Amino acid sequence: MEKNKKTTPPRHDFTVAFYGLYFGLLVLLFFRIFILRQDVIASLDLAILFLAISIFSLVQMRKQGTWPDIWNEYGKLLYGKHLIDTIISTFFFTFIMVGAGFWSLDTPGGVFGTIIGATVYAVLWWFLPVLLKQRRRK
Q1: Partners of 77 in beta bridges
Q2: Taking the mean position of all CA atoms in its chain, how far away is CA 59?
Q3: Residues contacting 50, CB < 8 A, separation 6+
Q4: Which of 67, 92, 116 is the last residue of a domain?
Q5: pLDDT tens for the chain, residues 1 to 138
Q6: SS3 state of residue 131
Q7: Which of 76, 81, 111, 138 has its CA 20 to 30 A from that of 21?
Q8: Are residues 5 and 59 both part of a single domain?
Q9: pTM higher than 0.70, yes or no?
Q10: Do both 58 and 76 map to the same domain?
Q11: 90 and 137, same structural domain?
Q12: What is the spatial distance between Cα 30 and Cα 36, in angstroms, rounded to a whole number?
């Protein structure tokens, strides 16, 4: 009886391998754009693959119920966690936009534009989940 039993590989091995590939792809993408100074269009294949993997991961996390939540069990917003998420995501978004050349830090006007862009992103990142939750209630 024991010989017919199928063994499934541990999920931990898959997770470690997946994150190794995921972050390896991210590092490779940043290396090609920021270190080798390749054009963003030249790295479009990696960017599209990284975006597809990211969207797939988010959909799978949502389906499995492992989505990190900013709401507690009573439906109240966890302000500290949400604030940290907002600051970190705004920092990385600004870094990517400046590094890719969409925003400039060369002139005072460019710095001001970068600050405005980062602020708009942070405000959207903060309020969008709140608005979506209120809309879901209705």
Answers
A1: 71
A2: 13
A3: 22, 25, 26, 29
A4: 67
A5: 555 555 554 555 567 777 778 788 888 888 887 788 887 777 778 778 877 877 777 677 666 666 566 666 666 777 777 788 788 888 888 887 887 777 888 888 888 888 998 898 888 888 877 776 666 665
A6: helix
A7: 81
A8: yes
A9: no
A10: no
A11: yes
A12: 9
